[in-house]
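User: Here's a structure from my thesis project, written as structure tokens. My advisor, Dr. K., wants to see whether a designed sequence matches the one we expressed. Can you design one independently, without my sequence as a hint?
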């Protein structure tokens, strides 16, 4: 993303963190957990429907 120059160069600009960039390091943990929960939900629905 772009970082615009602050109005006063002497003051440090607050850097905004993108939401996607904050989540990316957690993907190796979140994706398998979400997949496991989704499989359990689908299996329970399949058993209930049978």
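Assistant: Designed independently from the structure alone:
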């Amino acid at each position: 993303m772009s970082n615009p120059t602050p109005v006063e160069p002497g003051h440090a600009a607050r850097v905004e963190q993108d939401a996607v960039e904050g989540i990316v390091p957690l993907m190796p943990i979140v994706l398998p957990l979400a997949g496991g929960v989704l499989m359990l939900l689908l299996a329970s629905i399949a058993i209930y429907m049978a």
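When you compare it with your expressed construct, this may help: The two ends are 50 Å apart (CA to CA).
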